[in-house]
Amino acid sequence: MSDQEPTVYNGRYELHRQIARGGMADVFLARDQLLDRPVAVKVLFPQFASDPAFVERFRREAQSAANLNHPNIVSVYDWGEEGGTYFIVMEYVEGRSLAEILRTEGMLHPDRAADITTDVAAALSFAHRNGVVHRDIKPGNILIAPSGQVKVTDFGIARAFGGGNTDANLTQTGSVMGTATYFSPEQAQGRAVDPRSDLYSLGVVLYEMLASRPPFSGDSAVGIAYKHVQELATPPSQVNPRVPDSIEAITMRLLEKDPANRYPSAEDLRADLRRFREGQPVLAAGGAVAGAGAAAAATTAQPAATTAVPVTRTATTTAYDDEDDYYEEPASRTGWFIAGLVVLVAVLVALLLIFADALGIGGDDGGSGDLVEVPSVLELPQQDAIDLLEAEGFEVEVERVANVEVDQGIVFAQDPESGERAEEGSTVTITVSDGAEAFPMDDVVGSREAQAVQLLESKGLVLAENGIERRNDDEAPEGEVLEQTPPAGTNVRAGDEFRLVVSMGPERIPVPDVEGQPAAEARRILGETGFEVAERSENSESVPEGAVIRTEPGVGTETPRGDVVTIIVSDGPPPVQEVEVPSVVNQTQATAEAQLTSRGLNPQVTFANSPTVPSGSVISQSVAPGTVVPVGSNVGIVVSQGPGATTTTTEGGGGGGGGGGGGD
User: Is 136 a catalytic residue?
Assistant: First the structure.
């Protein structure tokens, strides 16, 4: 990517510089040329882009993440493909990742750690209510803005990468080493995860903020995963004596091996954190000790949790840090062998238990009913799932949950899971998608069209085909939203359509021709047409007094109805200016002409002999002094040539007045 020709995806997103590199993608600072704003663009590595199954999961998850609009979640704006390269466009967050803060600052004050955890829990609570489990909560995916605002990133992308397959997670180069530190036990065992798995990972992050290190570390991803399943976490107060008992209780509750012993939901976690910050007793103080039943949990470990391939770490200091693992470089091959051997023993125990269960050995069912294998009803419509389960002899309980990823009415979870055996007549709970979570329609009336469309589309709503109607409005300026459908406050869901009525401003009409009309008539015509009328006057040689000379704007100009049109009315010809003729007799010719010219009169000069008036002086003038005449009138003067024969020579234009007046 050269400086002269930057890479631009979809003709819109111009990449500026790389700001992070993760296990599955590079992250670039870019500019959205359409909206003129900075964005972060995550570009997938080619090895993932060549896997059609992964790309399809990636697409679905990107769309799901785009519907998570929450103050503590990094927004996903767009996704696309260009030339075989797949990318996601996200909100650009200035600041640092929690991973970088922990590297540079070490352990955090318990109050600060509680506040960050509270905000992350708010993000998780919103995502879980919308059917999205993060699966990759870690410090590198928690961003802290300079203002202190906490934002969680990579929602849905982690699931697109893992898809719930631990074997894939543990063997995909560049990904597991950044996440094994924060695995929940059920992730490490390859079991299905639910929102409580995110809470365990958040517990690891909280522990690390309090103790400056995670609860478990090791030589390899497998070794760390094994510890998540088998070992008890050392209480953080033994690492940092300043950790209060109440927040330690919260942390250890989150780190319970059995999901049933953790907080039921992220909202319950937030409530306990608020109690801690307010100095009230926390509910976790009465909970079970973290790690209870760890040995029993370990017996269910699956073989998928026994494979791993080490990766190379990539250091970065940006807020989009994808690499924040805490495993150590292997000291020797012996370490790998011992870790693998320990996990292999756990897997063999699990296989023996599964085999014994299949033979009916060690029956702890406690019931007398026949055991029946539970069929899979995932991805079936609700009624089809009920019919299938009832046909196998089960009772069915239905739970409906909002889920942006699954079509409404489709089963996306079941308990017990498919393949498990349960007593005939027992209850199978199926979780059915209720579609996207409903939310109240925003009020965009009075907003500018572009802003209204951008806001509604950011909520997952879709502008209907021909969804913009335009009409004139005498009050609303052009481009302002007049009406919306659905109305503000109506419950809507992502994917619903919306329509807008947008103002074209007042209707434009041509100015009528009233030139030459009397002013009163012109006012009437313009007023009936729909204009306000103003008036001013000026002199005109050609238009009679009281008639319209012209209009402003001019005749035929398209003008908004209700605007002011000014008529210019004639005052008739300009008034005549008059001046008094001065006496110039006996003055020199030059002085006489100057006096007449200065008063706006036109001197007309003739010459004559005079025995009494010196040569060059005025003998007489055609208009008597004191006479009032119009400016511009001609005044004749006779200038002496001295004694001699009587001859007359004329200068000037002649003709103004006679040579009246005595000369002596």
Answer: yes
